[in-house]
Amino acid sequence: MSLLSAATLLFLVLDPVGNVPMFLKALEFTRPERQQRVIARELLIALVIMVAALFLGRWVFVVLKVGAEALMTAGGVLLLLIAIRMIFPTPLRNREEPVTREPRIVPLAVPYTAGPSVIIFEILLMSQWPGQWLTWLGGVVLAWLGAAVILWFSAPLQRRLGRRTLEAAERLMGMILVLVAMQMLLGGLKSFFGIGA
Amino acid sequence: MTLLTAATLLFMVMDPLGNVPLFLTALRHVAPERRQRVIARELLIALAVMLVFLFVGQSLLSVLHVSPEALTAAGGVILLLIAIRMIFPAPDHSLEEPIIDEPFIVPLAVPYSAGPSLLATEILMMSQEPERWPVWLLAVVLAWLASSVILYFSGYLQRVLGERTLLAVERLMGMILVVVSMQMLLTGIKEFFGW
For residue B93, which residues of chain A lie inside 8 Å, CB to CB? Predict the structure, then answer.
């Protein structure tokens, strides 16, 4: 897997477009002149957490003693579920956290940006190919950069494009994620059972 | 492959006639005066997806390391989920999103119109003779135009058929769609494993 693939995948998993409305909702109780600063701070915290999670990945793999194939299949299942939630929005989605004051780390940095899906995906990358950690680090930073730009411009994006366009973008990203999920799921099964290798 | 063959092939893969009952059932909850506008919007989105995929589809799949077989299997999964929702309708939606009943992108534009088989066909044509892209582009537009005419006027069928008939058709189409999607899923898995 190359840098570009890793960055694209991580960007899709970060789901910045789907996060735009949730970011704006969470910032309702923040004074308008502070909002951009809060977003920047939360995004930087998210980056720190993501980078830390990347290096934790190696240890999880050692401790759990699970096969690489099982991890890849699990990653596929997880991605599939995330993607399905992006394609078919349901009222049960309930990812939104209640906010009553200026958000601090929760919920903007964690779990909206550095959520469980991103962290598990990082662990997956690290445990599959630990030697390429520099590439994964680059991928994380690139994906974060892409997501950060979108989230930084949350307010103008929603105003200019409207919720429908954002929703459309999220659904199309979900479709792409389904493809990746199936590839991982089937690839994991294939190598687990040693088919056609 | 000539322009006409390619256009015909794409038209067959799009299967507009088979899509008519699917379109009708998906639009069951949309107000009659909005229906034609929704169909037109979804068809235009489908065209956009088809055109974009024609040019970037192959590189997108290779960047993400997705094989064409996985594309088929993934299409099967999405269709299966749509079919399940048709047979077992979800309980009442929350009051916050009254617009949720209006289909948007899913399922009309993708995957009914621009389905995985169509996208796979596009990739196939582009990978075999990439230098003839203007021909493929024109073929896609022609096939889309022909199917769009059929699907656009299918909206008027709703008035003739009535609400109750459509409810029955929806359940039936759900069953059929389950079978079709399983076929796609299994074919994708089989080819992926090289059996």
Answer: 91
